[in-house]
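Note to self: keep these together.
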Amino acid sequence: MPAKYVAAVDQGTTGTRFMIFNRQGQVLASLYEEHQQIYPQPGWVEHDAREIWATTQRVISGTLAQSGITPADIAGIGITNQRETAIAWEAKTGKPLYNAIVWQDTRTRDICQRLQADGLEVTFRDRAGLPIATYFSGPKIKWMLDHVPGLRQMADRGEALFGNVDTWLIWNLTGGPQGGAHVTDVTNASRTMLMDLHTLDWDLELLDVLGIPRHMLPQIRPSSDPAHYGYTLADGPLGGSVPVCGDLGDQQAALFGQTCYSLGEAKNTYGTGCFMLLNTGSQAVPSQNGLLTTVAYGLPGGTTYALEGSVAVTGAAVQWLRDNLGLIQDAAETEAIAQSVEDAGGTYFVPAFSGLFAPYWDMDARGVIVGLTRYVRKAHLVRATLEAICYQTRDVLEAMRSDSGIELSALKVDGGATVNNFLMQLQADVVGVPVVRPTIHETTALGAAYAAGLATGVWSGLDELRANWGIDHEFTPEWGAARRAEGYRGWKKAIERTRGWAE
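Structure:
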């Protein structure tokens, strides 16, 4: 009897989830576990790669045990991951050679400034579709090669491997030191500053600029691969011989799970950060307005591209209210607290903790709260935090309109924060278009599962996946044009107060 389910590992910035789906795209079983956030000094953010792998094994084993689903029931497994988080490990043992350097980390600021000073901004934009920024993996690899004792020598001897988190997980799932597949997909490779967007291979000139040996890097494969990256081992958490055959960076996976397969379709994901992607079809569209040109997904029949607006801190700002300021006990409280006031009391909060990402790309920006008076209380700051999520999304949407000439008729949304009805209504009011929440909120894992299912014949094609998508709720704008414009003017003033703060 053929396997009837597909599974996905969703390895995010704060934790790991394993999910099993049926052919209708419905969740049959799921388990989530957080992992530690490591902050060695201001601006540095790390994860323990060993902990990530251990957590992944636990959620896989736990999901199977709780559900009664067996490995034989699973046709294939897909991986989706926090992108731009860099890991280096020893090929012979699988031992990480340094903590994973997380996408939010800003320690590579000096490296990026030197590249900019050398006049290489246009080169990286033209080849990789990306600005020179601390966000991406390439400068992180260079930092490790330059600063981790012995790593440069190991890399030169072919003893060290590099990967984003997807590569680390696939390598371990398919055998690790015993012949694990050292692969990545086109979406993750497009987030390194090292892949040529047009050839879909590592760019030797960019590697030379950063001093990164080619043999450290994984093989680049399609996001959905009928040839399969490898198979799970009998003594692994998933049992033996399950194909590992889907791989997408988390935001591309959400686009894929939202079935945005046509030119001009867009989605916004609300997580630690906020990420909007617009499908641009078979063309890699250069951005003139601070967006990223990236790969949306790669299928055996061809590659689809996207414009992306990446915002570093959205959900993380709510966590900051909870963990650093103690203003809330749980993120779920923000909905009622924000609704208790009519507006933010004239305050704006720009959470530029890691600088400003799209569309500004200012590594030297830092967070600000402006407009404070004695009138302002906790509820106003909570509401200003939710408004910041919405205004950062509008910044990206305006840039997409300018680059693509496409006027969105609706914005598909997903991610944990979409359960907040007030936030979703506020988002519709701020951007002035309907916000559409699907029946399945966690579309990131679904996208990875779809990629694995396509590779194993569970689904015949994209039309079958489109048929699974359904609307849970549509939020229509209620603000008038004058209020929308006034609020956005204030936000742009607040943005200016953040610029160039770090020296």
